[in-house]
Amino acid sequence: MPPKKKDEPDEAVGAARFGRVRNNLKMGVVGLPNVGKSSLFNLLTDQSIAAENFPFCTIEPNEARCAVPDERYDFLCDMWKPPSEYPAYLHVTDIAGLVRGAAEGAGLGNAFLSHIQAVDGIFHVVRAFDSEEVIHVDDSVDPVRDLETIQAELCAKDMEYLRKAVEQEKLDVKKNPTMKLSALFVSTMDKVEEMLTDNLPIRTGEWTTPEVQMIKEKLGRLITTKPIVYLVNLSKKDFIRKKNKWLVKIHTWIKEHGGGVMIPFSVEFEQELWDKREDVDATKAFLDSVDGAKSALPKMVVQGYKELNLIYYFTAGEKEVRCWTLYEGSLAPQAAGVIHSDFERGFIKAEVVAFDDFKALAKGKGMAEVKAAGKYRQEGKTYVVKDGDIIHFQFNVTAQKKK
């Protein structure tokens, strides 16, 4: 196989291979009832939705967005001090709690499983704290059991999708004598069924490109193809001391069931910190008292954005500093189209500097030092935009002639 050309985009890997190639992807907050999902959603998105102590408090999914923290964006805003500042945003959906048997309709299960199918990635919130004030749907706290419950329900729902798809394909073949089940279809569906029977997420399998395309074409957006970030909700005490009897067991389970990022956090800690946000002295006193513990929310947002295979580039100037979200691997004309379709249609070139080069060279507003150092590049239609690029597009759109 010949080597890739310099500007040829890399193929997405892992769960990203199954995802939609879009710029407005969403993470869904998922878990059993009363594990801290809605409280976390409130903190992430500055919302104030109901977060009561009983199952099914959240019924219809709540949607909001949270800014992606980035020191590069802050640097550009501090330099230019424009009247308009627009960070990148992660879109988040709060989905009601699942219970055992949801795939068969238990609780409010089927509707909620369809809500999970509608998002592109999952924040799986796991409870690892004891509290007499917060009831547990199974009466006792056991995060590993809860992880297995959720994964079993997701795999069961995907098995339902699989069976319907296979039945439909066989029906189509029966109606059309010129059709037959392809060997690729049969082998791929058998492989999917084997994994789901073993409660293994489809994203964890080793799939060829034709198999991935077959899954996407025939099975749609299976729930277990979506990337997952595991968020472990600890007590404030355990979060500060960085110890909890369940953490090692949870981490082991994750490694044995397809892997993924695990982020310990504490709703109790985050809420107390948030409540002090308008009092600088109180915030400092609180942070000084917690042995170096700090908010885990920024890490969650950044990781969620990464799991969706999203990046962003910057436009910066006197009027505005802005992050423009796009799918990793996008070419320069596609990136221009994020600003306006005319930019893509009439794309001429992209004038680009990497953020690190700009920060190292620029002594003030503008590109004089960057250009003098030869780091201000002109890129064409085949350029693959990199995360953190600072870009100015040149385009020309001729007005359409009236008929």
From TrEMBL:
Domain TGS: 309-395
Keywords attached to this entry: ATP-binding, Cytoplasm, Hydrolase, Nucleotide-binding
Subcellular compartments: Cytoplasm
Cellular component terms (Gene Ontology): cytoplasm
Database matches in Pfam families: MMR_HSR1, YchF-GTPase_C
Gene3D superfamilies registered for this protein in UniProt: 3.10.20.30, P-loop containing nucleotide triphosphate hydrolases, TGS-like domain
GO molecular-function term, one example from the UniProt record: ribosomal large subunit binding
Subunit structure: Monomer.
Function of the molecule: Hydrolyzes ATP, and can also hydrolyze GTP with lower efficiency. Has lower affinity for GTP.
Family assignment from sequence similarity: Belongs to the TRAFAC class OBG-HflX-like GTPase superfamily. OBG GTPase family. YchF/OLA1 subfamily.
Annotated protein name in UniProt: Obg-like ATPase 1
Organism the protein comes from: Micromonas commoda (strain RCC299 / NOUM17 / CCMP2709) (Picoplanktonic green alga)
